[in-house]
Amino acid sequence: MSTAILTGQPVPGSSLESDLRSLGFDVRLADEAGDAETLLAAVPADQRVAVVDARFVGHLHALRLGLTDPRFAASALPGAVSVQPEARRALTRAVARESSASGGLAVATDNLAERLTAALGADGVAVFRPELGTLVAAVPADPQERNEVRQAVSAVDDEAVRLRSAVKARDGFFTTYCISPYSRYIARWCARRGLTPNQVTTASLITALIAAGCAATGTRAGFVAAGLLLLFSFVLDCTDGQLARYSLQYSTLGAWLDATFDRAKEYAYYAGLALGAARGGDDVWALALGAMILQTCRHVVDFSFNEANHDATANTSPTAALSDKLDSVGWTVWVRRMIVLPIGERWAMIAVLTALTTPRITFYALLVGCAFAATYTTAGRVLRSLTRKARRTDRAAQALADLADNGPLASLVARATRVRLGAPLLVALGGTAVLAVSLFSGVTWAPVAGAVVYTVTSGQALYRPLKGALDWLVPPLFRAAEYLTVLVLAAKADVNGALPAAFGLVAAVAYHHYDTVYRIRGNAGAPPHWLVRAIGGHEGRTLLVTVLAALLTAAQFKVALTALAVAVALLVLVESIRFWVSSGAPAVHDEGEPA
What does pTM read for this prediction? Predict the structure, then answer.
């Protein structure tokens, strides 16, 4: 239960008390500043508390936005302020100062909430003020102004505003015009029945897994059912975020589930398509693994670029200015959003092709579309970086180093080597090129030698902070090198089951890399060092896979890949779940993938 302290004399005919109770507040009245101090002291330290001027007039949803959002330690509206437990001390100090200054005088004619808001800001507390748009929130000074404000409240349908605001302001064309017009009403239906966003997220995952199972049957009926279920899973995927925004049910666990389940759903569906194709005598596991690698690397490009630039200073670019200008022209906005094949368009394409064609055609279309989108977005980011005058921060450099996922071998090389080979990106490119050539040389032990060179250059690439214009390309380059090494060696093994085992290994490692991204986004840093050491880092895993491929027979290599996939998956999942359900997990609220 949260507590709202209503200051001043209640206004006859006001619905404020009932509105606050409908939002879950226990309402208590304070006629004087001293009363507010006493009432505040009586509220348990682990509860949210709000101070609201009794003269407040406004929409219920305005109160909801200003007083109940769990993402912020303190938030405020005109005439109202709310704090979570972490900001209680600052509020207590502010109320004590106001009580002392007032000498016990009545506060009905003075806006105590506004002064407390200003005092919180002066005390270093970040006070969130929601964008109200057409919603009304005011403290009228006299009866005439009160009537005018009440008329303004009556002129705006706050439920319609609430429904509109449940939908993300920036989304893809398919999501905006084919899903959101009705999914917002599903979100409202869920809210009125007490369902939580986490329950809807879980339902979306289960639906996608059933879709993958249908695709795995290999029958036309199964493929049609899989396509329909995948679309329904995406509707639920949109609904969970809209439900969170509609009812302000944000949570750390929910944000993590939404982010990770999206990847689990898509990649499980790829596996289902590959199994279904195999039942029909067509082996498309290499295509499924290639699609997963391409999509994961696209995301790493986005993550790395954003981390490198989001807090950079003097961050100007004529290319970025042109892009912003194009975003102000209606038709170019939608074209640019569609050609990057965001999750809505991508899942719609996959669903339709699954129902109407074959898994092979579906993967071909997916690979071509994602490759074009990756080329477009990466080229744009490279051009921005080359034309941008920016000074990147130490935090950005550390985030890129964490995303690189260097393990103990690369770290040892970085410490032991005195000769520095060159710029980080060039060194990483050189090592990756050597590894790529070795994989296709046809010599049994050549990939091992290439992996050794790759390990050395991985350590060299991070010998200094990644603050160069294009150093954000280092992490995605490492991801592509590791994943493609597993794909090429599994394909070369040419034994039944090797590629599915490789799919499992890359999926486990990719989960670890996504987990790293969301920890960094929450300012929690990278996963613990022991975990990175235990799973070897990207260079250690790459070297291990090449050694296993050289030493073992094809059948033995398949078993080794399977065992490695299980070991990595267990380690990263156990540690990830432990972290994200802990009380110290960061509040990360993902607004959808960028590509």
Answer: 0.89
